[in-house]
Amino acid sequence: MILPSRFNPLWTAPEHASSDALWFVFQRGNLLVYNAHDPPMLPLPADATAVVADMGAARFVGMLGDTPCWAARARDGHAPPDHAFENLRMLFNRLPDDLLAIAGRGVQMLEFDRTHRHCGACATPTEIHEGGRSRRCPACGETYYPKVSPAMMVAIKRDGPQGRELLLARSARFARGMYSALAGFVEPSESIEECIRREAFEEVGVKVGNLRYFASQGWPFPNSLMIAYVADYESGEIVPEEGEIEDAQWFSLDALPQLPHRLSIARRLISSVIAEVAPDHPALRV
Questions:
Q1: Among candidates 159, 158, 183, which has minimal Cα distance to 170?
Q2: What would the DSSP string read from start to end of the chain?
Q3: Spatial contact of 271 and 230, defined as CB atoms under 8 Å apart
Q4: Does one domain contain both 154 and 280?
Q5: Is residue 13 part of a domain?
Q6: What's the total number of domains in the chain?
Q7: Do residues 98 and 134 share a domain?
Q8: What is the predicted pLDDT for the residue at 223?
Q9: Could you report the per-residue pLDDT of 48-71, keeping only the tens digit for each?
Q10: Distance CA 116, CA 142 (A)
Q11: Positions of the chain with pLDDT lower than 70, given as ranges
């Protein structure tokens, strides 16, 4: 998900911010939406704030044009009438892309507060610091910033007598029938390129080369920064990693499986590799 260009991510609300705000209220990671009609929409400010557990713990997320955006946690219990708490992924294609991206920023800020209430060094309760950008321990001075976990993603390709082929894999966590590019978290002291080579060999048993950077994307599930590359297949036979990869195959462009959602960098990455040789491919029309 990509933050809209007219959104200004901030940590502190402007002094004269409008009271006509957008509220992103979460309960165990699920977003409160008004769903009396389809598609759903964000609740009115009065309906949203009525279920907030602690207004003092609400987080300012930024400005969407002239509109302030806030994130907060809801009290335990059921949603108000005509409202529901829905998983962000289930709101893809139903809530506007801009709002989904802002919701992703908001839920990560709330999760940072939840997981850093106490200092990891001395267990003292932490305090908001630097206008909300960090949390600081008043006892030992340790300062904590929101966690961002770098992860690589790689689309492995080869060109043969039958045309372009993509190595795609699926995890048991994926939706039924969906395959995607390989992905994995960067380990300490490891470069992105080293991570790509290691993960490709560990997950599917192949060696890759000619790595080319594609793009990056924040992904709030729960706090990843996806850094995507294209790579050429060099050698090896596919051997899926037990317990990690359910299946992996070479797919020709005329027999592609179900691909990830268009909001994901995985779909954009795969589409870019397809578009190099088949700019009119049906998979690009999403």
A1: 183
A2: ----TTEEE-SS--TT--S--EEEEEETTEEEEE-SSSS-BPPPHHHHHTTBS-GGG-EEEEEETTEEEEEEEBPSSPPPTTEEEE-GGGGTTTS-HHHHHHHHHHHHHHHHHHHTSB-TTT-PBPEEEGGGTEEE-TTT--EE----EEEEEEEEEEEETTEEEEEEEE-TTSPTTB-B-EEEEPPTT--HHHHHHHHHHHHHS-EEEEEEEEEEEEETTTTEEEEEEEEEEEE----PPTTT-SEEEEEETTS--B---TTSHHHHHHHHHHHTT-TT-GGG--
A3: no
A4: yes
A5: yes
A6: 3
A7: no
A8: 92
A9: 999 999 999 999 999 999 999 999
A10: 11
A11: none
Whether residue 130 is found in the same domain as residue 187? no
For residue 221, what are the domain limits? 149-284
* Distance (Å) of CA 66 to CA 35, 97, 215, 272: 25, 18, 29, 35
Q: Which pLDDT value is given to residue 164?
A: 95
Q: Is 267 within the bounds of a domain? A: yes
What is the reported pLDDT for 209? Answer: 97
Pair (163, 248) in one structural domain: yes
- Whether 64 and 136 share a structural domain: no
**Does residue 126 sit in the same domain as residue 11?**
no
Confidence (pLDDT) at 285: 85
Considering the domain architecture, whether residues 122 and 110 belong to the same structural domain is answered as: no
Q: Is residue 2 part of a domain?
A: no
Give the whole-angstrom CA distance, residue 280 versus residue 245: 31
Query: What are the pLDDT digits (tens) for 158-187?
Result: 998 889 999 999 998 898 999 999 999 999
CATH number at residue 108: 3.90.79.20
Q: Are 285 and 278 in contact (CB under 8 A)?
A: no
Considering the domain boundaries, does residue 215 fall inside one?
yes
In this structure, are residues 130 and 215 in contact, taking their beta carbons and an 8 Å threshold?
A: no
